[in-house]
Amino acid sequence: MDHVEAEMVSESLTRALVHRTGLAAALLLAIPGAAAMSAPDDTLLVAELRRLEAAYGGHLGLAAKDLRTGRTAGYNAAERFPTASVIKLPVMAAYFQRVRSGGPDPKTLITLTEEEKKPGSGVLHFLSGGSTLTLETAVRLMIIQSDNTATNMVLDRLGETHEARLAWVNDFLLGEGLKNTRLLNRLYSPQSKRLTPEGIRYGIGVASPEDMVLLMEKIHRRTLVDSAASAAMLAILKDQAFNDGIPRFLPVDRHPSIVVAHKTGSVNESKGDVALVLSERADIALAVFVDKHPDHLEITDNRANLLIAHAARAVWNHFTGESGDDDRAVQGGDVDWNLFPGGKWGIWRSREAAPFPHPDRAEGYRRQDGTFYPAFPHYLDSSIAVVVPQKLREGPQGINLIVHFHGHLNDNMGVLERFPIVQAMLEAGTNAILVLPQGPYRARDSFGGKMEDAGGLRRLVEHVLAVMKKEGVIREAKLADLILSAHSGGYRPLAFCLDRGRMNASISRLFLFDAFYGNHDFYEAWLRGGKGIMLGAYTEHLTKEHTGFVATNGAAAGERLQFTPTAAEHNDVLEEFLPGWLRELPDSWKVR
Predict the structure, then answer these.
(1) What gap in Å lies between CA 185 and CA 170, rounded to an integer?
(2) What is the CATH number assigned to the segment(s) 336-589?
(3) What is the DSSP string of 100-155?
(4) What is the CA 451 to chain-centroid distance, rounded?
(5) Cβ neighbours of residue 201 closer than 8 Å, sequence gap 6 or more
(6) Rounded to whole angstroms, how far apart are CA atoms 164 and 173?
(7) What is the rounded distance in angstroms from the CA atom of residue 138 to the CA atom of residue 92?
(8) Could you tell me which of 265, 270, 235, 318 has the C-alpha nearest to residue 47?
(9) Phi/psi class of residue 134: alpha, beta or left (left: φ > 0; alpha: ψ in -120 to 50)?
(10) What b/e readout covers 261-275, taking b as 16+ CB neighbours within 10 angstroms?
(11) Are 111 and 68 spatial neighbours (Cβ–Cβ below 8 Å)?
C-alpha cells in the first residue's frame, strides 16, 4: 500500500467512525495512539485533555490504567516523546536487573571525581572531589533529586563501554515489552551522542506514555526484575522531591491516603511525569508527557507543569467519578537549544513571522472529502526550528539559509526525526542554517499560511536572522544566499514564496522532493525571471507534472532546470537526493 492509499484508508475509517459513533469517537482515531488505550466511553476525558492542551500549549501525550479494574485511557498514548530525566526511571530498573544478574554490589563505595561533577545537577555537584558514596545512594539521588552526576555514576557501572551500557538498558527494556523506550546517551555527553534522527530529536531518551504505564504496572505488580527489586524501586519513587506535576492537584485534602510514587523530567520544551497514584480510592498507573512547549521558565507555575498537573487530575476524576480543577492561560518562551555531535538545533515561537496562525484557518479547514481539521491543534502552532552546524561560517555578505517546508501529516519536529537532513548537511559540510517553519500540523493540507501573504517569506527570513543574532549564532542579521526546499505537500508554500515572498533575488536554488503538484506558473515565472537553479526528484505519480513542465520550459532554462525520476518511495526521495544536491553547492556553501 503506497502513501496515497494509506491516507485514503485512514480517512475512510475516520468517516465511518463519525457515522457510527459521532465526532468525539472519531477524534480518538485522529489522535496517534489514542485508539490503543481509549474506548468510546473515554470520549469525555479525551475532550477534556484536548481542552487542557489547547489552554496550556504544547503537545500532550498521556496513558493511564486503573490497576484495580483494568480500565485504560490514552491520548497520543503510543506516540514517542523526549523523556528528559524520566529516562532515569528505566535506568534504575536496568540497574536492579544488573545487580540481580551478578553485577555490582549496591554497597560498593564510589569516589566522586572532579570530572564526574561537570554535568552540574543535584547535590553531588556541590560536594568536593574525593567524596565517597555507595552505589545504592547514587541510585536514590538519581531518582529523588534527579542528580545527573549520580545518574552517570550508575550508568558507568552497567557495562565496560558506553555502547555496552546503552545496550544493557535497552535490551532489558525491550525484554520487558517496552517497544518505544530507549536510552540514547549518557547525560551531558554530547560527544557520545549518536548522529541519528532519533539521537538528534530526542536527546538522552525517548519513550511513549503507554510504555511508561506498562513499566509502572510491573512495579505495582512486583514483577519488574523481581518482587524485592520492585518493592525497592517503589520505595525510592515515593521519596521524589519534585512534586509540581502529577501530585499537584490531586485531592489529598479529601483523600489523605494518596501516595504518589513518581519520576519527573524537564528540559525547556519537554516535560514529563510518570507515576503510581496509590490510595484507598484508586490505584492508577499514569504517564504524562508534554513536548514543544513555549514556556521555558524554571518556575513552579511553568505552563507545561500545570498542563501535566491538570491532566493528572482529569484522569483521577475520570477513574473515580470525582470532579474539581481550575484553568489558566498560556505564556511564551525563548529559544530552546539542543546539542548534537556537529551542531545544535533550537526552537521558538513567533505568531508574527511563522506561517501560522493565519486568518484563513481560524475556523479550521474542511477538505472536499469531508475531513475536518480544527484550528487546534492543526493551525495554532507558531514554532520555528533551526539547525546550526558547529562549523557554521559567517561571510562578509552574511549567512546562508535553507528554508524547508514539510509535507502532509507531518510537523517540523517530525522532519528532524524522520528525514536525515541534518546528517546530509554535516556530511556535505554545508555552510548554512536550516530553517524548519511549522506548516499545517499533522494535517492533509498544503496551505502555506503567512507564506501566502505578501512579504511573508521576507518576514520569516528577517525574523530568523534577528533571532540568530540575538542568540549569538551570527554577528549580523544579513542574508548571503537562500535555498527553498519542499517535500510533498510543502510545494505550495514554496510556490507562494516565489510569487509574493519578495526574496526572489536572494533565492539561488529550489529543492523539490516529490513536490510539484501545482502552482506551476509561480515556478515558471521564477525560473524565467532569475538565475537560480531548480532541482526536482519525482516518483511515478508526478511524472506528467514534471515532464510537462520540462517540455514547456526546458529549452529556455537549460541546465538551470533539472528534474530526475526515481523508483524510490515517496518518503525516501529526500534521503536519496539531498546529499548529492548539497555536495554540488558552490564553495560559498561549504565550511572550510
Answers:
(1) 11
(2) 3.40.50.1820
(3) HTT---TT-EEEPPTTTTTT--SSGGGSPTT-EEEHHHHHHHHHHS--HHHHHHHH
(4) 23
(5) 82, 413, 416, 417
(6) 14
(7) 10
(8) 318
(9) beta
(10) bbbbbbbbbbbbbbb
(11) no
All three cell numbers of 383:
514554532
Calculated CA dihedral for residues 447, 451, 454, 460, nearest 10 degrees: 160
pLDDT for 68 equals: 97
132 burial level (CB within 10 Å; 0-12, 13-18, 19+): exposed
The Cα angle at residue 26 between residues 23 and 31, in degrees rounded to 5: 125
* Contact present, 62 and 316 (Cβ < 8 Å): no
**φ, ψ for residue 198 (rounded to 5)?**
-65, -45
Exposed, middle or buried by CB within 10 Å (0-12, 13-18, 19+), for 173? buried
Question: Can you say whether the dihedral through the CA atoms of 516, 518, 523, 524 is positive or negative?
Answer: positive
CA 428 to chain centre: 25
DSSP 590: B
Question: Does 37-78+209-320 match 84-207 in CATH topology?
Answer: yes
Architecture category of domain 84-207 in CATH: 3-Layer(aba) Sandwich (3.40)
Q: DSSP class of residue 157? A: T
How far apart CA 470 and CA 464 sit, in angstroms, is 10
Measured in whole angstroms, the distance separating CA 382 from the mean position of its chain's CA atoms is: 15
Topology classification of domain 37-78+209-320: Beta-lactamase (3.40.710)
Handedness of CA 423, 425, 428, 431 (dihedral sign): negative
According to the model, what pLDDT value does residue 519 have?
Answer: 98
Residue matched to cell numbers 484557518: 361
Element (H, E) at 552: helix 543-557
Specify the residue for cell string 507545561.
304
pLDDT tens digits, one per residue of 347-362 = 999 999 999 999 999 9
Q: What predicted TM-score, i.e. pTM, was given to this entire model?
A: 0.82
Distance separating alpha carbons of residues 252 and 250, to the nearest angstrom: 6
In 3-state terms the chain splits into helix, strand, coil percentages (rounded to 5) of 45, 20, 35
Q: Of the candidates 366, 414, 295, 305, which has an alpha carbon nearest to the alpha carbon of residue 32?
A: 414
What residues in the chain have per-residue pLDDT under 70? 1-41, 118-122, 326-333
For residue 41, what is its C-alpha cell?
466511553
485's grid cell: 526546499
Task: Say how far apart CA 96 and CA 4 lie, in whole Å.
Answer: 47
Q: Which of 567, 339, 362, 414 has its CA nearest to residue 59?
A: 414
- Compute CA 183 distance to the chain's CA centroid, rounded to the nearest angstrom: 16
Domain-wise residue ranges, the chain = 1-30, 37-78+209-320, 84-207, 336-589
pLDDT at 28: 37
